[in-house]
Amino acid sequence: MKTLLAIREQDYAWTREAFPSIHPLLLPLCNKPFIEFLIDFAILTKSTAIRLLSDGQLSAVEAWCGNGSRWGIPVSYGSLHDEDCMNTLIDKNRRFCEKERVMVISGFNFIRYDKRQDYAGMANALPDGDWANCSGGAITLAGSPQHPEGRAPEAPPVLSLIPLDTMASYFTTSMETLETGADHYVLPGYGGEPGCAIGRNVVISKSVEIKKPVSIGNNVQLQSGSVIGPSTIIGSNVIIDRASSVSSSIILDNTYLGEHLEVNGRIASGNLLTEPLSGVSIAMEDPHLLSGISQNSPLRSLPRKIVHALAAALLLMLLCIPYLLLWPPLRLTGRWKSKALECLSSSGKQNLTLNIIELTPSGGTLSALAGALSLDRFAMLFRVMAGQLSLIGSTPAEAASNTPDLRAGKPLYRPGVFSYAEAEEWPTSGSERAIVERFHLAHSTALQDVTLTLKAFFNRLHEKSTS
Q: Where are any strands of DSSP class E within 7-99?
């Protein structure tokens, strides 16, 4: 059997206004993109291939799903038109179907199923026609069963469709999915106990209280005194600041929630706070309360680049003489070593070759002085003036490493000569570094960057001079 997923833009038109930065088929339910629930169900029915059909743009979905290799099932893509009926869809994709039994899942609907039950046997035994339907679409079987001798399960497996046609239906379906949890679906994250799924690189302060059920995504920081749950979904790349509480709510990806806030029965996305039953949204103007963690546009980043370049020029002038005095003897005595490192650029689409300087720890006074003055970063200041690096930002990420989130623009990433983690004296590796860097990348201004650069410079000066 093979599966056709036929979803038209009109089926999910409401999501364009509610979640403009998310492709509807990638809209997360319990931290898992909607399209993956459909793929999982197709796999449960033992489909051998999946084809996604739509009259809208699928580039973002194709970039996410690829050819289906991560699930072990081929995934391909095609188009459809408003007037295409069931027979027309199958006829247009006859090479894909190849006279096999076909399951057509139509509409923007959530499939309520149980992964522990035998859907393959039922899909093979049922006659042609609708297997399940609702106001928003149907699951339809077409073609003769591949194994006519097959028997349907004695107890028909639970199966129904829930139309995702409003913000309210999306919210209630997400909450239901959270409560049934891993018993019914394959959900992301890890957890040693039922009702608690936690992703990668999650920092939870000791005084945080977590009330199940909860689902927490990747690269999340829960600061001291915060209360999470019950019935709460926290997306990826999220910061929940001190003494805030979140219950019966969804905090979508790339969102910062400020201090001493109480969020109950809401959806937070960027700086928007939405009451899901009414669909009423409030845009928070104060970034210290609620804000998005997202890439700056080129137009908005231009003033920052100018300020960074001017500050870099000033540092070059101040450090020029010490560099000319210390570099030759260190280089001649082998205490100044450099290596080329391929790093991701801020766009994530091309690489930067940076010369990383290593000063021999046992190099004596000259080596210690060069490190204290950050002369190992001297040459990188020219890249700031050329607009290739920021003066302060993220720690440059090696291109050869496994960094799919950075290549996709998540979390926020802007490589710099100095890092925000150095300025705040946080660990310069691991998830703690990523958290503080994301926060400053989302909220710092160009002038604040200059202040933070000075802090990073003097922190290194103090660290090297006392080591």
A: 28-29, 32-33, 50-54, 75-79
Q: Are 174 and 285 in contact (CB under 8 A)?
A: no
As its CATH architecture, domain 2-183 has Alpha-Beta Complex (3.90)
SS3 content of the chain, % helix, strand, coil (to 5): 35, 25, 40
Question: Rounded to whole angstroms, how far apart are CA atoms 48 and 146?
Answer: 12
pLDDT at 406 over 50: no
Q: Tens of pLDDT along 316-373?
A: 999 999 999 999 999 998 899 999 988 888 766 678 899 999 988 766 788 889 999 9
Residue 41 identity (one-letter amino acid): F
Average pLDDT on 243-271 reads 91
Domain 196-292 sits in CATH at 2.160.10.10
What are the sequence ranges of the domains in the chain?
2-183, 196-292, 298-466
**Maximal C-alpha separation, the chain:** 87
Token readout for 194 is 């039922």
pLDDT the model gives residue 192: 67
pLDDT band per the 50, 70, 90 thresholds, residue 156? low
Q: Is 283 exposed, middle or buried (0-12, 13-18, 19+ CB in 10 A)?
A: exposed
Q: In which band, very low, low, confident or very high, does the pLDDT at 271 lie, cut at 50, 70 and 90?
A: confident
**Residue spans of alpha helices (H) in 137-261:** 167-180
pLDDT surpassing 70 at residue 292: no
CA-CA distance, 431 to 412, in Å (whole number)? 14
Contact 211, 246 (CB under 8 A): no
Q: Kindly list the distances between the CA atom of residue 48 and the CA atoms of 67, 140, 405, 455, in Å, as whole numbers in the listed order.
A: 13, 17, 29, 57
- Average pLDDT of the chain to the nearest whole number: 86
Query: What are the start-end ranges of the E strands in 107-242?
Result: 109-112, 129-134, 137-142, 160-163, 196-198, 202-204, 209-210, 214-216, 220-222, 227-228, 232-234, 239-240
Structure tokens at 298: 């080129």
pTM of the entire predicted model: 0.69
The whole-number pLDDT of residue 402 equals 47
In angstroms, the CA 315 to CA 313 distance is 5
Residues present in the chain in total: 467
Instruction: Take residue 63 and report the two structure tokens written for it.
Output: 């970039």
Residues 407, 350 contacting (CB under 8 angstroms): no
Per the CB < 8 A criterion, the answer to whether 226 and 257 are in contact is no
